[in-house]
Each structure stands twice: as C-alpha cells, then as structure tokens.
Amino acid sequence: MSPPVAPLVEIFSSIQGEGIWVGCRQIFLRFAGCNLACSYCDTPRGIPQYCRWEARPGSREFLLLPNPLTAQEVALMIRKLEPAAHHSISLTGGEPLLHTSFLLELIPLLKGTRQGIYLETNGTLPDSLERILPLVDIIAMDIKLPGTANINPCWQEHRAFLKLARGKHVFVKLVVDEDSKPEEIERALDLICNVGDIPLVIQPVTTPEGKTRLNPEKAITWQSRALEKLTDVRVIPQTHKFLGHL
Ligand code: SF4
C-alpha cells in the first residue's frame, strides 16, 4: 500500500500571532484545503502545485517542493528547520484534520521541540480529532459564529469537538467583528462553559494591513460578558499581520 500523502501550502519558521501562545516561535505546517469557507478567510482555497519550504529558519527564502508530500519528506524538511529552537510545531491550514491518515504517520516523526504538537483547527471534525488526539499536545480551536463567518451553524460539531479536546491544553478562539450577533456570542459562551472553564480568546477580525474590525468598547463589553462565565478571557487580534510576519 502506498504511504499517505498530503498537499501543503508552506513549511516555515515564524512567530505565533494568535491565541494564548502568541509570541512563541513555531514551525508552521500549513495544509491546503478546508471543509469550510469563512468570509474572512485569508488562506487561498486551491491546492497549490508546490509547497513553499523555508530552507533556513526565519530567512523568508523559500524553495518549492512538488505536492503532494509524504510524511517522511515533510519530517525531513522540518528537521532542517531546527525544531529544538522552537516552542512547538503548528499544524495549521486550511484544516489539518482533513489529513488524519497522513498526520498519524507524520506526527511520530516530529521530535525535538520544547512543547510538542500544536493543532490549529476550525473545531468541526470531532471524529478526525479522536483519531489523532493522543499525538497532540495543544489545541487552538475555533468556534465559528455563523453570522460573522457567513457559514452554516456548526454548534453540534463544536460541542462534540470541545468535549474531546478538553483533556488537552485547549483554548477556544472566537473571531468577531463589528457586526457579530450578540445572540451567537452568547450561544458560543454557553457552549464553552457547559463543557468546562476553558480559556477563551476573542479575536477581532484583523485586516491584512493590521487594522481590527471591532471598536474597543464592544471588545471590552463582550470580554466582560464572557468573564461572567469563564475565568480566562482575553482580547487578542492577529498580531502577525502588523508584525509583518507570515
Ligand atoms: S476554517 Fe479557517 S481556513 Fe477554513 S475557511 Fe474558515 S478561516 Fe479559512
């Protein structure tokens, strides 16, 4: 049987720009393809012919590798990016959980970072998460507000996903903008606190120029409301956009 392969957009070293591990140095493995189509998505939708690989960590000099790649090929490229200098390896996308067979083969080959494997996910594929859960250390999970993302509701999937993820270092990310519906934010808060007292990051939609689409008063109002139900609630925009990083 031929080994599982996956299409990747890029493999590079940079600084985590979102969530409660913001500022940590990570190796990013960006998978192509997603099961959702959020209106604010900044990831190209197509499957690229080549994966960009940053041959020297942080150099922004990329070589092109033909897609799809095997787990052994990806592990070799990651080893050359000096895992020991990094907090963790971020599996991101797109949606990395579309590639679980590949991840089952890849993750055991990824050694040497300080904190292990960091999964960034839209939180809608609980069956896939269950398959790789023992191999993951940190989970950054979205709860999608249907009105803000302009997609169908995923409440049931999110609930099942968060129940599985709560055994790990997990936090939830809620992307909001000026027009986010208060009733959807309330529903997300109820969903989270019914599963557990899980850290929440309210993430204002951030433009490529580094401007947020949420006025500070509203951010503070929603944070206060969330703090009535949860202990750890932070407002953090996508900082890599104004740092000028990838
Ligand atoms: S889940 Fe993420 S990658 Fe997928 S469409 Fe939404 S923002 Fe883009």
UniProtKB/TrEMBL annotation:
Transmembrane segments: none annotated. Substrate binds at I15, Q16, G17, R30, T92. Signal peptide: none annotated. CDD domains: Radical_SAM. [4Fe-4S] cluster binds at C34, C38, C41. GO terms for biological process: tRNA queuosine(34) biosynthetic process. Pathway: Purine metabolism; 7-cyano-7-deazaguanine biosynthesis. Keywords: 4Fe-4S, Iron, Iron-sulfur, Lyase, Magnesium, Metal-binding, Queuosine biosynthesis, S-adenosyl-L-methionine. Catalyzes the complex heterocyclic radical-mediated conversion of 6-carboxy-5,6,7,8-tetrahydropterin (CPH4) to 7-carboxy-7-deazaguanine (CDG), a step common to the biosynthetic pathways of all 7-deazapurine-containing compounds. This is 7-carboxy-7-deazaguanine synthase. It comes from Desulfofundulus thermosubterraneus DSM 16057. The gene is queE.
